[in-house]
Design goal:
184 residues, alpha+beta, 7 strands, globular
């Protein structure tokens, strides 16, 4: 297992060529210290663990790793089929033509959903917008911004060795940035 920058892990997700709708996630606060933990999983693309923190309002830092090559029968129940929320991974739009084309597709989706008068759900709208934006990964997510969802600790126990290695790297990153000190 290789510990890498969290953005490199997200790049792996973007470039996985897996079915975009097949992704699921679990995220919440770390069990100790500053930051958040996130597990992203896809049945065929694997399971990725990311640890991040906001160094300041404009910069997020973190580490991550691929912790499993696929979601097997033991891991499947730890990822939500229907989450408390939804997530999406979106690479940056790189030029004006791409921005205009994406805006046109999203506008069309919004018009279509507005014209359905109650026949559209929030999940369907989200899925359609993600598809219009060519999102490479989206789906249900169990997230707790003030704590840890049930599956988070089970995933940590399942990937205990990876958790320990990522925690050590993450703690070094936080300490080197001086984020763990507070005001003095």
């Amino acid at each position: 297992m290789r510990v890498r920058d969290w953005q490199d892990i997200l790049e792996d997700v973007v470039e996985s060529n897996a079915d975009p709708r097949g992704w699921r996630a679990v995220s919440g606060t770390r069990s100790r210290g500053v930051g958040e933990d996130m597990y992203l999983g896809h049945p065929r693309a694997g399971v990725f663990q990311i640890k991040t923190y906001a160094k300041n309002p404009f910069e997020v830092k973190g580490v991550g790793a691929e912790v499993a090559r696929r979601i097997d029968d033991d891991l499947d129940p730890l990822f939500p089929e229907q989450g408390s929320g939804r997530f999406g991974v979106q690479p940056a739009i790189t030029d004006e033509d791409q921005a205009k084309d994406t805006a046109r597709r999203v506008t069309e989706v919004l018009r279509t959903h507005a014209d359905t008068e109650g026949a559209s759900s929030g999940d369907a709208l989200f899925d359609d917008v993600m598809e219009a934006m060519d999102s490479p990964a989206f789906g249900p997510m169990d997230h707790d911004q003030y704590g840890r969802p049930d599956g988070m600790d089970e995933l940590g126990d399942t990937f205990e060795e990876a958790e320990e290695l990522l925690e050590a790297e993450f703690d070094d990153l936080v300490r080197d940035d001086g984020v763990d000190r507070g005001f003095q």
